[in-house]
Amino acid sequence: METTGSRPAGSRSERLRALRLRSTRRGRLLRALVDLSAAGPSGGDLEAELQRLAERLAAVASLPRVVVFLVDGASGELWPAAAAGVTADQLQALRQDPESPQVVRSRLRAAPVGRRTLQDASSETLVVPLRDADGGWTGMIAADVGELEPDQLVAAAAELIADRCEAQVVRAQLDEVLSRLALVDMETGLINRQGLEDALQRELVRAERNGRPCAVLALRIDPVRAMVGDALAQLRQALGPKLAATLRERLRRGDLPARLDDTTFAALLPETVEAAARVVVDDLRGRLRQLLDSEPDPTQLTVSIGLCCSSGRGSTAAGLLESATTALPAPPTPAAPRLPYA
User: Fold this and answer.
1) Which residue of 29, 107, 210, 296 is most buried, as measured by CB atoms within 10 A?
2) Is 4 inside a domain boundary?
3) What domain range includes position 171?
């Protein structure tokens, strides 16, 4: 006899299986939340770390697609930096059609799911903003939920991943600042020897490819007469920023001045033939003479200039710098009268 309104056969077992799956998923999420809470930011490459975090979120929360967007500093648009569950073609399409955070926010028809997780009802997407210390958007995590009904645990996992992403972005920004500082002479603001060698190596590759030579000039501050160590150091310290300012004023916009050590400066002149480089050297001689003559005791120091040119073939950055500094005349004898510019 058939009972009216009876449930289809197997519905009880299906419900039990769904409950077991949900319980397993919640247990996996809870374990993942504990692991994520204990883990600190890693020190690897930013995009590689964001990729690892996107894949982790997709795995622990059973999300079919997770994309981590960062705000591009130049354009202000959201750039997909990492993705899980996305094909190469889909990722390329995302990169070809970036949007600004303002546009994304204006389109969201969202309701809060967690502390800061939003669910876009129109696209069944979870959105977790990434923010800086001032509360501004630095990016976002967007995750397709598919048939999943997101709950507080999913939101908590997404927010912990977002916290890790924010920490990675901050670490990458700090690393970039520290890397730049490591290539800068703090006293003058010019790049140091390592920074100049890096730039020069790139320029040599370009010079060899394009057939356009480059030039490197070196400048050295030398004492004309014997001075006490501290007095000499103080004089060079006072003159260093002035010499850096003179180089910036005279050199072209694309030229790159640098400070190699306490007494030696240099400059990279891209796409410059020897004749043009010698014009720069001659002009610098006059400017530097004026600079020294403006000092309280203009007879204490002199500046020498050396020059080296290269077409890029067979040259190295360190070798070209060595040639430029070797072209400097020998320092004057401390007791000798002031020597003319070389």
Assistant:
1) 29
2) no
3) 11-182
